[in-house]
Amino acid sequence: MTAVVLSVNKVASFPDGGGHFWVYLQYALGLRQLGCDVYWLEQLRPGRDPDRRAYVIATFQDRMKQFGFEGRTLLYDTVDGQPCFVGSTRSDAEAVLRRADVLLNFHYAIDPRLLACARRTALVDIDPGLLQFWMSTGELDVPPHDCYLTTGETVGTPAALFSDCGLRWTHIRPPVCLDLWPFSYEAQADAFTTVSSWSSASWLKMNRNGQTVLVDNTKRISFLDFADLPRHTSQPLELALYLLDRDPAGQARPRQAEKDAEDRALLEGHTPPTSGGRAGSSVRPSRRAWRSRMPGSATGRWPTWQAASPPSCSTRARAHSCLMVRECSGSPRWSKRPRPSRRSTETTGATVARRAISRRRTSTRDACSRRR
């Protein structure tokens, strides 16, 4: 049996980010269906709260157990510059790496000592364009791999507007485990939908006129470019956003908290027009947002369109809150319960949009082009 180790990034430490989790889980499940023996390798993010750390580890291990990966997860911290594994020794973890036929590495800043234990390595680029930018500008020092895979269509081709970093890139497509993400069709599902995070501490260092400047690299800045789009198209649009409500008196700077409030006010202020037939939008802020019905929850069912209170919105003082934006032509339309045939949740990420977008990709592109 072929043994594969997946080295992933920032999954266990972000239990609320189901979309991020599913990106890597699709690979793990797909490889296992092909008959591979799959292991999960991940470095935990540093944290000061021991209770939070215990919660993060327990939540992650429970989820992996539900998917059949119990005993095949290798979590580690970096203590005094050395990998320190959770629930196992470093020698045991390195033995797994040495037995593996290949290490698929999604963690661009992986410890080179762990990478060197593997017999064959492949870097998997799931941030096309950004990864090459980080590498070419020296922001990331990616250790050498045996081969380089990318989900980017133009990476390493003449059509790319960025460097190939002197590497030969093999193009792949992101996998989807169809057993868990089956296609379902509903004729009345007319809206373009997406579920997304809103803001994060993501910045690009760029050189402009000889000066280094920081450029916002978040979903927020991209969404704001199209904040007025609903007024220019009759196409129904739906956004379910994972917003941050940072406490001005907390660890975040007051300016960050002010920005959060401004963004919320902007989205909530998109009221539909009273006449003229032009498209408008409606916003329903709520802590009763899309719940992650992950296996291992009280129901043990797969994600569905069901309104409930996620842990992230109900259990912490500096609560992350969720916001749903329903944008439609004429008066706002709200369903008491979202359509159950759309299998998604606040934590399923960008995958949720594929079914709707695939049917109307051309019209969306045209609408966006008109807006620009």
Can you put this structure into words, describing what you see?
There is one protein chain. With 372 residues, this protein is an alpha/beta fold. The chain has two domains: 3-171, 3-Layer(aba) Sandwich (Rossmann fold); 192-371, no CATH class. Helices cover 26% and strands 23% of the residues. It has ten helices and 14 strands. It has helices at 18-33, 50-66, 90-99, 112-115, 130-136, 219-224, 254-268, 311-314, 354-359, 361-371; strands spanning 3-9, 37-43, 73-79, 82-85, 102-105, 121-125, 147-150, 169-171, 192-197, 203-208, 211-216, 237-244, 279-286, 320-329. Strands 4-3-2-1-5-6-7-8 form an eight-stranded mixed sheet. It has a four-stranded mixed sheet with strand order 9-12-14-13. The protein has a two-stranded antiparallel ribbon with strand order 10-11. Helix 1 (18-33) links the parallel strand 1 (3-9) and strand 2 (37-43). It is globular, with a radius of gyration of 22 Å. Mean pLDDT is 74; it is low at 271-372.
